[in-house]
Amino acid sequence: MTTEPRAVHLALPESMSDWETGHATAHINKPDWQARPGRYQVVTVGLTDEPVTTMGGLRVTPDITVDQVEPTDSAMLILPGSDTWHSADDTAPFVDLARNFLDTGTPVAAICGATYALAAAGLLDERAHTSNDPRYLAMSGYRGGDHYDTARTAVTDGDLITATATRPVDFAAEIFSKLGLYEPTVLESWLKLYRDNDPQGFYELMAVQ
């Protein structure tokens, strides 16, 4: 019996930082090395059905709009960075969606400016997290400074993943771990290749059946 893949929803704010989620989305959609190939499919989500222009100049048409997303039907919501996250009016529907995901126990993964928006909404006040810099998040006026982890570039606390903009590979690895995309030894090999630039990781991945 064929099972439909579960959606991993990728938010598309205007001017999204396309490189910050590229490793994650590419390998979620790529069946190679996965523990259960075809289990997930990336579905893009816009505030409207109009195309958005990424920071890299790509025009992307959303698959669905934010009002069509049901957290309990999703495996995860991924929030990439964007220049628009600092304006609550521009991104409020995405932040509200993230809150709904967390309230229903469905994972949320946020990187760069998206962490600022979650902080401003109070969603980082009681959760371990990281971002681009503690002083950056402090500008949001949030109360979670004591939970900021300066030692790690990507942090998972329960159903929330946060990461700094400069470590999209670490961000992707946390996402893969949360989704159970790869067996642990395969994820180690993936990190050897993509994080550590260790050619041995490539050969190990090529040997995965």
Quick summary:
By secondary structure, the protein is of the alpha/beta class. Helices cover 33% and strands 18% of the residues. The protein has a single domain, classed as 3-Layer(aba) Sandwich (Rossmann fold).
What does this structure look like?
With 209 residues, the protein is of the alpha/beta class. The protein has seven helices and nine strands, in the order βαβββββαβααββααα. It has helices at 22-29, 88-103, 113-120, 134-138, 168-179, 184-194, 199-206, and strands at 6-11, 40-46, 52-53, 59-60, 64-65, 74-79, 108-111, 154-157, 160-163. Strands 5-2-1-6-7-9-8 form a seven-stranded mixed β-sheet, sandwiched between helices. It has a two-stranded antiparallel ribbon with strand order 3-4. The model has no long low-confidence stretch (mean pLDDT 96). It comes from Nocardioides turkmenicus. Keywords: Glutamine amidotransferase, Transferase. One of its GO terms (molecular function) is transferase activity. Residues 8-176 form the DJ-1/PfpI domain.
